[in-house]
Amino acid sequence: MPASRIRGLALVLAVAAGLSFAVPALAAASPAAALRTRVGLSATSGPPGAAIRVSGSGFAARETVDVSFAAADTTIGHTNRAGRFSGVLVKVPIGTVPGTYRIRAVGRRSGRRAGANFAVHTNWAQYGHGPARTGYDPDENVLSASAVPRLARAWRFGTGNYVFSSPAVVNGVVYLGSLSNAVYALNAATGTRRWVFRTGSSVGSSPAVVRGVVYVSDGSRLYALSAATGARRWTYPAGADPFSSPAVLNRTVYTVTRNGTVYALNAATGALRWRVRLRTEVDASLAVADGAVYVPGGLGELYALKAATGARLWHALLPGYAESSPAVAGGVVYLGTDHTDVGDLLAFNAVTGKGIWDIQNANGAVDATPAVANGVVYWTANGSVQATDAATATNLWSVNLTPSVMDSDPAVADGVVYFGAGDGNVYALNAATGGQLWDFSTGSPIQSSPAVADGRVYIGSDNDGEYAFALPGS
Known about the structure:
- There is one protein chain.
- By secondary structure, this protein is mainly β.
- It has two domains: about 30-120, Macroglobulin (MG2) domain (Immunoglobulin-like, Sandwich), CATH 2.60.40.1930; about 135-470, YVTN repeat-like/Quinoprotein amine dehydrogenase (Methylamine Dehydrogenase, Chain H), CATH 2.130.10.
- The strands form ten sheets. It has a five-stranded mixed sheet, with no helix packed on it. Strands 9-36-37-38-39 form a five-stranded mixed sheet, with no helix packed on it. Strands 27, 28, 29, 30 and 31 form a five-stranded antiparallel sheet that branches.
- Strand 34 (about 385-390) and strand 35 (about 395-400) form a beta hairpin.
- The N and C termini lie far apart (about 75 Å).
């Protein structure tokens, strides 16, 4: 007897007997078909070369899934009995220009597909690009030496007072401080204001933006603000001595006050991890690299402290006042000084503090923090710009542009050196030859240092404005 007639007879008999029971459906939907096909990413943004872990669900059971970045470089994943996969590694190709790209997953047998967006950014997240203060963006790939001559002003944002702060640029947003007692977040493409946070005094320090939090200081406090809204997360008081620009590494915020007190704070809560008082004044920002904190003493000293505890590792004497922040690269600390109408660019072993070389500069004090990129140190002094071989201290090239003071640190990206000068100009030089590629006059001296991110250059001026420069049509 057919199964349908058996079920029908059973139902008639059950009704006649006054019984009731559930009758199973003739056909159940496939569990996988009932699921929505999805893809998840371990991160939604990152630089060229970033590695992303991809997971997915809603695919057929035990099938091969092709996972690709922008329809290229396919990686294979395999689903389990539930139609899920995880841990598939996809890499953003080196040289990928900033923009939004699609990561796709396609089941070979079922044809089911899903995707998620990934934003490629070449961020400049802290003063000097990162806590080591090298002033080098290795990811920038739009503003090559051949493209830079076409740079033009994209926008100017008025802050109402001087901009000494160097901007941080993260995921399409520019963060900066101003002497107008404010911290601003601006749309990086248009310069429109996203939010403003009013501080108790002027903000000369440069923000650090890490894990969705902005760390910045005014004359008496260190603030942690939401990068998305500007809402205050926590505040740490410094008293009468202002903090320098903070450095953030390994979920710790490091900063120093003018009276020589070095702080290490929990980045999430602002709780004090350790504090050390040095017997010196400090007129520049510290650097953090390879487990050590490097502090420039204004009275002619350089300190290295253990990043975990603040214990002193070594102490070196300098031939003059420490004017610049340290830059740390390849196990070497580079620092500029001022003494007796001349300046020095110095190199120290980062582990032992032993001096490696000393270049005396007759043009005057080395006030700006040097940039270090690809084995070359780029530095400025009273109108001159120089490139020095980091290993041998050999001069590679030197350019005299203007007799004005140069407090703006150089920034290096994609074979180009950028800096501001006391004559009000922003300059771009070929990093290999020193040849001038481009300049722009703001009309006022520049003490802010440039940031290069996502194919744009950002810098502040003493004319109460923040500038952005970009290629036409970008």
